[in-house]
């Protein structure tokens, strides 16, 4: 297993479905890619970038995000979200991401932003939460 270091990357591709729309997610009233789904894809790309490098029993949890949703995507449109680990500060991992539309030669930027995730021991993290309830 190689260490977690800046420059780790991953990408996620997806096709917009009815379930991904702002209308379905409750974040709007139109049948286009909902911002919460774009964020979920960005986080999935971040997780994919480091997952092969995590020790057994370790995971990351989201702690902060900044997202700009620049362009609408219709049901049936395809997109790719690329994430790169750009900074490590102790257990805090910072990523940049960008989402592109894929189709008919149109690779316009759909959205971009940053995600911060904290490296945690899964069992300790869950035990702490259960003890707090």
Order of helices and strands: EHHEEEEH
The radius of gyration is: 16 Å
- Percentage of residues assigned to helices: 10-25%
Any guess at the CATH architecture? Roll
Tally of DSSP helical segments: 3
* CATH topology grouping: Thiol Ester Dehydrase, Chain A
Shape: globular
User: Number of DSSP strands?
Assistant: 5
| Distance, first to last CA | 36 Å
What would the keywords be for this entry?
single chain; 133 residues; alpha+beta; Thiol Ester Dehydrase, Chain A; five-stranded antiparallel beta sheet; 23% helix; globular
What does this structure look like?
The protein has 133 residues and is α+β, with helices and mostly antiparallel strands. It has one domain (9-132): Hotdog Thioesterase (Thiol Ester Dehydrase, Chain A, Roll), CATH 3.10.129.10. It is built from 3 helices and 5 strands, in the order βααββββα. Strands 1-3-4-5-2 form a 5-stranded antiparallel beta sheet. A hairpin with a 2-residue loop joins strand 3 and strand 4. The termini are far apart.
State the gist of this model.
This protein has 133 residues and is of the alpha+beta class. The chain contains three helices and five strands.
Topology diagram in text:
Elements lengths: L8 E7 L6 H4 L9 H16 L7 E12 L8 E12 L2 E11 L6 E13 H11 L1
């Amino acid at each position: 297993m190689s260490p977690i270091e800046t420059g780790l990357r991953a990408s996620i591709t997806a096709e917009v479905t009815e379930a991904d729309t702002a209308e379905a997610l409750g974040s709007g009233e139109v049948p286009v890619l909902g911002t919460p789904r774009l964020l979920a894809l960005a986080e999935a790309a971040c997780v994919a970038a480091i997952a092969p490098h995590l020790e057994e029993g370790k995971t990351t949890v989201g702690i902060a995000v900044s997202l700009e949703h620049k362009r609408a995507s219709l049901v049936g449109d395809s997109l790719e979200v690329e994430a790169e680990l750009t900074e490590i500060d102790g257990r805090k991992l910072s990523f940049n991401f960008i989402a592109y539309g894929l189709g008919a030669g149109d690779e316009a930027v759909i959205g971009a932003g940053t995600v911060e995730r904290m490296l945690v021991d899964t069992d300790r993290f869950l035990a702490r939460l259960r003890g707090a309830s």
